[in-house]
Amino acid sequence: MSRGFLYNTSGWPHVLTSRLPCDQHYTFIMGNIAFIGIGSNVGDKIRNCGQATDEISRCKEITVVAQSSLYRTEPIGYTQQDWFINCVIEIGTSLTAYELLNILGDIELSMGRRRILKWGPRIIDLDILFFNNEIIRCEGLTIPHPEVQDRAFVLIPLCEIARDYVHPLLKKSIAQLVTDLGSGTGIEKV
Ligand code: ADP
Ligand code: MG
User: Fold this and answer.
1) pLDDT digit string (tens) for 68-82?
2) What is the CATH number of the domain that holds 107?
3) Which residue among 122, 137, 151, 164 is the active-site one?
4) Proximal ligand: closest to the CA of 127
């Protein structure tokens, strides 16, 4: 049986089974779902996040299914840098996780991203947060993204569009992970 027929079985993320019939069409056609974290803290940050979403949706193997609000967030790690704009999108795609990573890397490059400093300023950052409910640990690709559970700027927008999705390793819903964050998250809706 092809993967596209499996969208309503228990092996799939809960978010799929909670969708309306018209949305199930996406997963039937596209095969996989993924959540992508988008961030920018250089130049016109809101425009950069919008452009990245447009570029992603222009890819013929990808359908953008849902998009969170934009959030203004404080930098973490290297804190001597400008604040960020972050959002999360859900996509349906016929690409594998590796193909998707390459396409996101191409979009980052085409938008002028240069890797100078880990956690440093970036015109655009595109991270694969989840891919179906798969667990992938390879050089260059870790899914679920290892910092999802620690990052308010990922969890809070994600919770808008996938509150019932269960983290495949932690076995907690996104809503539960947001609760676990506690207060003082340094993030506000634009
Ligand atoms: P970060 O997003 O942690 O600030 P970068 O955007 O500079 O760091 O990404 C560095 C590398 O992380 C990329 O070259 C990519 O190969 C790797 N990587 C590993 N897992 C993922 C993932 N789930 N999504 C995006 N990139 C990932
Ligand atoms: Mg990244």
Assistant:
1) 999 999 887 777 788
2) 3.30.70.560
3) 122
4) 1
Residues 38 and 26 in one domain: no
Note whether 109 and 99 are same-domain residues.
yes
Ligand 2: centre distance to CA 127 (Å): 5
Distance 20 CA to ligand 1 centre (A): 32
Q: Are 41 and 81 members of one domain? A: yes
Q: What is the pTM of this model?
A: 0.85
| Domain identity same for 115 and 50 | yes
85 shares its domain with 123:
yes
Integer-rounded Cα radius of gyration of the chain: 16
**Does one domain contain both 134 and 55?**
yes
Q: What is the spatial distance between Cα 132 and Cα 93, in angstroms, rounded to a whole number?
A: 10
Position in ligand 1 atom list of the atom nearest CA 125: 6
* Full domain range(s) for residue 13: 1-30
Reply yes or no: is the peptide bond before residue 144 cis, omega within 30 of 0: yes
What is the residue type of 18? S
Q: What is the pLDDT of residues 47-65, one digit of tens each?
A: 999 999 999 999 999 999 9
What does the pLDDT read at residue 9? 34
In contact, 107 and 55? CB cutoff 8 Å? yes
| Nearest atom of ligand 1 to the alpha carbon of 144 | 23
Say which of 127, 151, 164, 180 is annotated catalytic: 127
**Ordered DSSP codes for 48-72:** HHHHHHHHHHHSTTEEEEEE---EE
Measure 59 CA to ligand 2 centroid, in angstroms: 19
